[in-house]
Amino acid sequence: MMRRIGMMCAVAGVLASGVMVGQAPVTVSTGPASEVQANYGRIKPNVLKAAEKMGAEDYGYKPTKDVRTFARVVNHVTEAQLHSCGALIGAGSAETIKVPAETAGKAEILAALKASFDVCDKAYAGVTEANAAEMVQVGPAKRSRVGVLWGNVSHDNEQYATLALYLRLKGLVPPSSEK
């Protein structure tokens, strides 16, 4: 009887651990670099889908005269990403990308946004747990590599909130609210 109880406890322990017999445990990379990469991976599709979802005719939309147009918000994300992520991957890469005028068409604005995400993809891929605290020059200041990337994630989240609001005001469901 005691042997049977012992065997049942062992089986329950294995099942409770989430590891099946014969299966290697899943290792999850943790640390500042992994965390910032995961958060970037969540915000990037929302920003891109929001920019894609808004109709070309509504890129000039702004809810009141005192706020930016939808196109300007998208361009602002592009500019900020080129500045931050470009500083991490080295001069030249981001400087060849031109941010279009606010009055440019959707296709041109979207192409620049995608190009800025390509620059950021390289910057996020280049951060490791070993180099996350490395200080890099960003404009007039030195900042940690991971600090620059967290700043970018935070900024993208803030700007996505504006894009999502503009979509809702146009009767569209923001990507993060889609089922």
Task: Fill in the keyword field for this structure.
two-stranded antiparallel sheet, mainly alpha, Four Helix Bundle (Hemerythrin (Met), subunit A), 179 residues
In terms of topology, how is this protein built?
Layout: H1 2-17, H2 32-53, H3 70-89, H4 106-125, E1 135-138, E2 141-144, H5 145-169
Helix pairs in contact: 2-4, 2-5, 3-4, 3-5
Description of the structure:
This protein has a single domain, classed as dinb family like domain (Four Helix Bundle (Hemerythrin (Met), subunit A)). The protein contains five helices and two strands; from the N terminus they run H-H-H-H-E-E-H. Strand 1 (135-138) and strand 2 form a beta hairpin. The protein is globular and about 45 Å long. With 179 residues, the chain is mostly helical. It has a two-stranded antiparallel sheet. The longest helix has 25 residues, at 145-169.
Shape: globular
How far apart the termini lie comes to: 51 Å
- Taking all residues together, what is the mean pLDDT? 87
Overall strand count: 2
**CATH class placement:** Mainly Alpha
Order of helices and strands: HHHHEEH
**Low-confidence spans:** 5-23
**What does the largest sheet look like?**
2 strands, antiparallel
